[in-house]
Design brief:
about 120 residues, Immunoglobulin-like, 1 helix, 10 strands, about 5% helix, globular
């Protein structure tokens, strides 16, 4: 079945399924409209997953290649994450090569791992 992403960026995925999502970023331009944002060469983008937003460190961190903008976590890694009713929390961050600034693109949104077949 694979992952489902709600409009608010909440992710639902059955335990043990491969997480394979295209990633797209938008920024607001001077006119106030949202336009696509494409990372520059040398930028680093990553996905972090925590049991709770209050946890200090993520238990899973995965680089998102800026050339493909595809987030992928293999089924074997996703199998290790237990299904539960309460959501895990994920964030996506970028480190800009030009100035080394780190920006949070998505801040600790819900990430639900469901029982297989749910």
């Amino acid at each position: 079945m694979g992952a489902i992403v709600d409009p608010d960026n909440t992710i639902y995925i059955p335990q043990g399924d491969t997480l394979d999502l295209p990633f797209r970023m938008e920024i607001r331009n001077e006119a106030g409209r949202y336009v696509p944002f494409f990372p520059s060469e040398g930028d680093q983008l990553w996905f972090s997953l925590k049991r709770s937003a209050k946890d200090k460190d993520p238990f899973l961190k995965v680089d998102i290649p800026v050339d493909t903008m595809q987030l992928r976590v293999e089924a074997e890694e996703m199998e290790k994450i237990p299904a539960r009713r309460d959501p895990y929390r994920y964030a996506v961050r970028i480190r800009h090569a030009v100035n080394e600034n780190v920006d949070t693109v998505i801040r600790w949104k819900p990430f639900f791992v469901t029982e297989e077949g749910d």
